[in-house]
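Class prep. Write one:
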Amino acid sequence: MSNSLALSALLLFSCAIMPVAAQNPDTLLPEQSAAKGRQILAQLINGLGGPGYAGVRESLCQGRRAQFGHDGGLIGYIEFNDFRRFPDKARIEFIGRGRNTILQALIGVDGLDFASGGIVITLYDGDRAWSYDRSGVNELPVTSAGEFQEQSKRNIDNLLRLRLREPGMDIRFGGSDIVDLKQVDWVELTDSEQRKFRLAIDRSTHFLVRAVVSTKDPEYQQINEDTTIYTNYQLRDTVWTPLQVSREHNGRRAAQFFYETCRYNPGFPDALFTHDSLQKRFSETGDKHKKK
């Protein structure tokens, strides 16, 4: 049975477990809490498109990103094309119009040539990562690839589509609440590596309102909390897609995404996510940039 068919069967089974009546999570037995949590997750996945959402393996989203500094002030905006092949391949093209100083804050890598605009690309393929700019194609530090792999494990789409049945994944009902003026049910998940996820699901639309991911910082031995806020859902292909997404880190505003378009399962060529694709692009455009 394919992954999407197996997940669809799980959703139908979970939806039949119990009614949606409000319950205090502290009064539930562990197995009751797990069953209710899975029921709410099934409603979430069905609300986002059911098999049309669960079966997504690729996406292309385009829009603008706003980046904020440590003081919460706006650094600037940048356009992007975000190509994904789940769970761990990404090609992100940043498009500048004139002088732009936001890129280093986005990627955290010194030396990329973006001062006069143009395109800078970061490409991630599992545990390897590269960058493309006017100067050529360069391998990104191991830390950049490691951070991307960690982000892939925290990614909520990966969680909902691919990870719910992982060994060691603990799921429980987290109670009801009012979040952003919406009545929500919380579901709490903990994976085998102790990443903690808290998802707030709208009881009316079954859309995701907020996701909070808590992880332990191995260097400073503190708990970091990353919050994502989802708004302005629109149907794109087979998926109800939030066209505005805001991110906070430890309570501080970090970034905001404004999506103009999103396409799902467009059928990317395998070469799109390879080092050779960047080299080919540079061979076709690099000399032109140098002559300008």
Q: What stands out?
A: The radius of gyration is 20 Å. The first strand starts at residue 58 and ends at 68.
